[in-house]
Amino acid sequence: MTTVLIVDDEPQILRALQINLHAHGYTVVPSPNGKAALLAAQTHAIDVVVLDLGLPDMDGLEVIAGLRGWTDVPIIVLSARHGSHDKVEALDAGADDYVTKPFGLDELLARLRAASRRAGTNTAEPLVETAEFTVDLANKRVTRAGEPVRMTPTEWSVLELLVRNPGRLVSQQQILTEVWGPAYAKEAHYLRVYMAQLRRKLERDPANPVHLLTEAGMGYRFAQ
Amino acid sequence: MTTVLIVDDEPQILRALQINLHAHGYTVVPSPNGKAALLAAQTHAIDVVVLDLGLPDMDGLEVIAGLRGWTDVPIIVLSARHGSHDKVEALDAGADDYVTKPFGLDELLARLRAASRRAGTNTAEPLVETAEFTVDLANKRVTRAGEPVRMTPTEWSVLELLVRNPGRLVSQQQILTEVWGPAYAKEAHYLRVYMAQLRRKLERDPANPVHLLTEAGMGYRFAQ
DNA sequence: CGCCGTTTTTACGCCTTCTTAACGCGTCCC
DNA sequence: GGGACGCGTTAAGAAGGCGTAAAAACGGCG
């Protein structure tokens, strides 16, 4: 019952891997680009990632960095480049293994087994901590003074987006489109309601927030 | 300070690796053959093993097996053979990585870093206990107050998925796709029925669950 | 062919969450 | 100085999610 996230922009390769891995008992989550991959990694319980470096939308190293920001899931990189420099870069970015194309299916399967074997049960905890509260991104859990704080789906989506961009300004439009969808890009209204709720749950003095900051006219910012 | 056990029968390679790795901050334990390697692994606190497969006294796979009998230390295999079959054999015997000669020193260093990085977190637990019940994942058994509790296949699948992710929020979509299949991702209905059944069997007060928790709109969570 | 355990439907009442509205405060610009 | 605008806060109705029980459909096995 191992779930593999496969990231490759070539549909026929994606499809071939999907069929073959499924035939070998893996659950496969396919993803054609980097953005979808990062999203899928959050919505599914991924055990291993198979990542092709040549993606259309973003650099493969960015995908590795995006994953490594919050999870220790094994990453097996596929690449057509044999250069030693590329391998070093990928491995140092956080990849666990590097396979050069063309490769045999049996080799990939063996490396998958090796990766998932040593991963075992994923218990590493990627935590984002502040003086006031702690956000566990992998487990979708928020604690404050040791006590768990319950978040509604929308509250969590907003908080997660901010926490995944610590210190960075996130525009209202971006939050609205990512949480509510592109059609809601103008409903800045919702944001005020939810920021107030988040502050009431997480800030010591909700009227004078320290971690969930408003940048008037610009957006919001999470400060650690 | 990472200690690397290097096993290679060619003195000049052994020596070259020893010098280079030492220059990069590693403590090196050299070993010219398999027997000496197995001995050294027991007398030194080894963090990573670099193993050449072509040894004079014993098969490289035997060395891997000899190490895997008692330790999970990462093993990086060096080999001149490019054949896919050899890779599969070594990886399945318990190796973590496979590098074909000739290789660049920087690649080996990167793979060393990757191996020792992930070495920190692993170990599996087949028995999950709570104050109320015990789940034996390996034997698919649930006991409560010493008495075995009978589970239907579907009940077990749901329980297993939750218990394998202790403390982690599991979305209902994920449970549905993994237990019933992707076509049932929207049938959140089933889940309510089965969560109720699991609680009736496992919780002291099914109406106020302590271990099988609902996160409204988000999913379910198993709390130990 | 009929029984029995399991899964899937169905129905209903309760509760959480989302959405919307209203109002007060502060700030910026004219 | 005044108006417009953006923001924070609260409250309440609407909509949908959840728990529960029980009946119907299914499937394996004798």
From TrEMBL, chains A, B:
Domain OmpR/PhoB-type: 125-224
Record keywords, A-Z: Cytoplasm, DNA-binding, Phosphoprotein, Transcription, Transcription regulation, Two-component regulatory system
A Gene Ontology term for the protein's cellular component: protein-DNA complex
Response regulatory domain: residues covered: 3-116
Pfam families xrefs: Response_reg, Trans_reg_C
Location of this chain's protein in the cell: Cytoplasm
One term of GO molecular function: identical protein binding
GO biological process: positive regulation of DNA-templated transcription
Residue(s) carrying 4-aspartylphosphate: D52
Gene3D superfamilies according to UniProt: 3.40.50.2300, 6.10.250.690, Winged helix-like DNA-binding domain superfamily/Winged helix DNA-binding domain (1.10.10.10)
Recorded superkingdom: Bacteria
Keyword Cytoplasm listed: yes
Task performed by this protein: Member of the two-component regulatory system KdpD/KdpE involved in the regulation of the kdp operon. Upon phosphorylation by KdpD, functions as a transcription regulator by direct binding to promoter regions of target genes to positively regulate their expression.
Identification of the protein by name: Transcriptional regulatory protein KdpE
DNA-binding region range list: 125-224
Main location: cytoplasm
